[in-house]
Write a structure and sequence with these properties.
The structure holds two protein chains of two kinds. By secondary structure, chain A is an alpha/beta fold. Chain A contains eight helices and twelve strands. In chain A, a hairpin with a 4-residue loop joins strand 8 and strand 9. In chain A, helix 2 crosses helix 3. Chain A starts with a helix and ends with a helix. By secondary structure, chain B is of the alpha+beta class. Helix content of chain B is 38%, strand content 16%. Chain B contains twelve helices and six strands. In chain B, strands 1, 2, 3, 4, 5 and 6 form a six-stranded mixed β-sheet that branches. The radius of gyration of chain B is 23 Å and the shape is globular. The chains are: A alpha/beta, B alpha+beta. Chains A and B meet through helix 1, helix 5 and strand 11 of A and helix 5, helix 11 and helix 12 of B.
Chain lengths: 289, 354
């Protein structure tokens, strides 16, 4: 009991009482086992006992558990929200991970070994050895066709994806276009259908045959899934109605990039489009100057 | 002892006085500040967090500036990384009962003991003088209002005789003890896991969903509270040297059993359905609501209706009753969403042919 007392006292007194990377070792082991299983079954949703975290559910608690379980001394950490390193929540998550692990942080995606992200893949070319941890709000791509996990688990197990194909077909027949905006479902290595998390369609091609590891953590929904490097990831599409990324009519107002994902911003009373990846945009401006 | 709810020899005043005096007893036991002033709020935080630690819950409430959801979050995250030394089962039959009422039975075996309750005291806001709590110094020695009788050491379950008679159907096999905070999320489908979810459920969500069943959403059903108990459960652990067990703590607990009578397909039930609910602490509506939802779900499982209403749908309830999951996800909308919203706009403009 004295060990317990010490831990409680330490924890109550402040950070020195906490374990390396905040989580206790058995929790990390459990997350790592789920990650390994997920990597062995690309796109398959692996349930785990999601811990209560010092951030609210729905605010990155799943990504945080994955990051804290895979990170080790010597890693360099980048955390973004909507592509922005300095978004409040990204800052809070980065501070928490850095404070409990002492790893270095960076905003340059090319230098980071672990990148925790909400809703974007950095614009930079990523390379082997990098781990991208996605924060997942809704893990199951079949939620749109049935809200019951018991039903969709069976569909996944039986490789029965007719409902989601029909959903896509009905969109095309009725609307003339798919209604998937972000979160367009993908087929992983010809097997499981997976939600790429709400990354925009612009980012989907980046997942295909990617050199980096993609880990997806859903804390509230207690699910982890993964895409190992060099894995085929294809958006759902019909041969005659191909998948379409978002289209932008103008380049980035700040850096002039024509290939990056843009979001709206008001500048001097005028609505302009700017890169959502703020660090990429900053460096592009520096190079142009 | 009281039988039906009738004023007998000042029972109502006595019950309210005991409830107020309990604060004084708690103060004498070392409780201070919020723990003494707002014991039921502390109970609610502890119950929703699934952690019985009043001083920690009080500290969390203060740190959260009174936001219950945030206080629960703080307590849960604090507890999540503490080592689990042992899992033990407490036997509900061992409860040291401070309060026991049986609305279904006028004079049950063992009797009824009103205990501490504000239920029948009028709700007139006291605008005079100092706040009515934690100001009393002379606490009664024994917290019962049973006249000359001491509360018995144990009571038979009020519904037991109905079970023996075959009128009350037990829900299913006794639920296995379960810890969903340490179990793979895919394995939380059993009734034990559901009962734990109900015990930790968000108080308002439990209440409104149970109310929806009473209000007629679902098959026509009429729950009756068989028994409500409030008291302390001993938590016993085995000695590491094998020399028997010892009691490490007394857990404040409220339990409720309801029986549900239903008419379905135009016919009356041959048997009543039993529902069980429990919560730590003394927020009694939590236990009653949990018992109703256990009964409605158990019944829907035995005889699936054509359409399951929310209160009958264990899978639905499992997804939405946890206050941390719900409040966290509702409030996450405050995070920036311009990347995904841009994608939405792109689709709408495309469909509009722009």
């Amino acid at each position: 009991m004295s060990d317990l007392r010490q831990l409680i006292d330490g924890a109550m007194a402040g950070q020195p009482g906490y374990n390396y990377a905040y989580l206790d070792e058995s929790a990390k082991r459990e997350v790592r086992r789920a990650v390994l299983k997920a990597l062995c079954l690309p796109g398959h949703q692996v349930p785990f006992a999601s811990r209560d975290m010092p951030v609210a559910r729905g605010w990155g608690s799943g990504g945080l558990q994955v990051s804290l379980s895979v990170i080790s001394p010597g890693d360099r950490l980048k955390v973004i929200d909507q592509g922005d390193d300095h978004s409040m929540n990204a800052q809070a998550l980065r501070d928490l991970i850095a404070m409990t692990t002492n790893v270095e942080t960076t905003t340059d995606a090319r230098e980071a070994s672990v990148i925790q992200t909400r809703h974007r893949i950095p614009e930079d070319e990523l390379h082997e050895g990098q781990v991208v941890v996605f924060q997942v709000p809704i893990a199951d791509p079949l939620r749109i066709v049935d809200s019951r996990p018991s039903v969709t688990r069976r569909m996944h197990a039986e490789n029965d994806y007719s409902a989601v194909w029909l959903y896509l077909y009905e969109d095309l027949a009725r609307l003339g276009a798919s209604s998937f905006s972000h979160s367009h479902p993908v087929e992983v290595e010809g097997g499981y259908i997976m939600s790429p998390t709400p990354i925009p369609r612009h980012d989907l091609p980046r997942l295909d045959d990617a050199p980096f590891v993609s880990l997806f953590g859903a804390g509230r929904e207690a699910t982890i899934y993964a895409v190992p490097p060099y894995t085929r990831v294809r958006p759902l599409e019909f041969e005659d109605r191909p998948f379409e990324p978002e289209r932008f009519k103008e380049p980035c107002f700040r850096c002039g990039a024509t290939t990056s994902y843009l979001t709206e911003e008001v500048h001097d009373g005028r609505q302009v489009m700017v890169c959502s990846d703020t660090d990429f945009c900053r460096r592009a401006r520096g190079a142009a100057a | 002892m009281y039988s039906t709810v009738r004023e007998m020899a000042g029972a109502i005043e006595a019950a309210a006085a005991i409830a107020a005096a309990q604060s004084a007893v708690e103060a004498a036991a070392g409780y201070s500040g919020l723990e003494a002033q707002l014991p039921l709020l502390i109970d609610q935080v502890g119950a929703e967090a699934g952690v019985v630690a009043p001083s920690v819950c009080a500290r969390a409430l203060q740190q959260a500036r009174g936001d219950v959801a945030r206080a629960v979050s703080l307590v849960r995250a604090w507890a999540a990384i503490l080592p689990r030394l042992e899992n033990v089962c407490a036997d509900a039959a061992e409860m040291q009962v401070l309060r026991r009422i049986t609305p279904a039975f006028r004079a049950p075996e063992g009797g009824q003991f009103l205990g501490a309750s504000l239920d029948y005291a009028n709700r007139l806001l006291d605008l005079g003088g100092t706040p009515p709590i934690s100001s009393q110094s002379d606490a009664p020695a024994v917290l019962t209002n049973n006249g000359d009788q001491d509360t018995p050491a144990s009571f038979p379950r009020a519904g037991e005789s109905l079970e023996q008679e075959g009128i009350l159907a037990r829900t299913d096999n006794p639920a296995a003890a379960f810890d969903r905070t340490r179990t793979n999320a895919a394995d939380v489908a059993g009734r034990g896991a559901f009962l734990q979810l109900l015990a930790r459920g968000e108080t308002g969500a439990l209440t409104s969903l149970a109310y929806s069943a009473q209000r007629g959403f679902g098959q026509r059903q009429d729950p009756t509270l068989l028994e409500l108990r409030q008291g302390s459960l001993p938590v016993r652990m085995s000695r590491p040297d094998g020399g028997g067990t010892f009691t490490v703590a007394w857990l404040p607990v409220t339990t409720a059993e309801v029986a549900m009578y239903r008419i379905h397909d135009g016919r009356a039930d041959a048997r009543l359905t039993l529902g069980f609910g429990a919560t730590t602490g003394k927020v009694e509506r939590r236990a009653i609501a949990a018992a109703i939802l256990d009964a409605t779900c158990a019944r829907a499982e035995q005889q699936p209706p054509a359409v399951r209403e929310p209160s009958e749908d264990r899978e639905f309830l499992s997804a939405i009753l946890d206050g941390q999951e719900a409040s966290g996800f509702v409030e996450h909308l405050k995070l920036p969403h311009h990347v995904t919203f841009t994608s939405d706009l792109d689709r709408v403009r495309q469909v509009q042919g722009q």
